Please model this.
Amino acid sequence: MTKTKQAIRILVADDHAIFRDGLRRLLEGADDMQIVGEASNGVECSKMLPKLKPDILLLDLRMPEKDGLGVLEEINFDNLATRVIVLTAAEDDRDVVRAMRLGARGVVLKQSASDLLHKSIRKVHEGEIWLDNRMTAEVIDAFKKSSESGQRREKPLLSDREKEIVQLVAQGFRNREIGEKLFISEQTVKNHLHNIFDKLGVSDRLELALYAIHHRLIEQS
Model:
């Protein structure tokens, strides 16, 4: 199948050859996706990343020699535009939370339907955070347990402007970009975010995006 010029370039890192083969067959069937490399362990993955500079890294958390968390710890996201989607069998939500803290932008269960994997890759490539419905509640709960923030309101009272900012944060926009889109200053965006964090009881932008998805403050199509 002929790929489009803007095909999403994907690196797959998983130690099971059969699983990698299945992913390759699945993703190569999409005309907007291209696998540019495969790694069977974390050491290989770390070496391939700066050379291939993929758009998306599909990263297994459980690998020999160096696990997925070890790979994430080494990635300098300021110099590498790759966005990471963690592949997991959901053995331990603490590892998933740590992966998100280290910069992963999506979590996909290995047993998920193929259409969800395609959708997650496209969404994360566009700058959004992806968690399928089965994982969102678990990750949010784990964030609550690991957070030192106070109690969160079940029905937070956000202004229309605050809701707009929450949506843009969840879509991956930075403060300056949000200000440009809403025709307000970057400092005003920061002030709004301070109020939003206080209202929702979240401590950073990642928690805000996850909270918004879980509580349907934004719609994840």
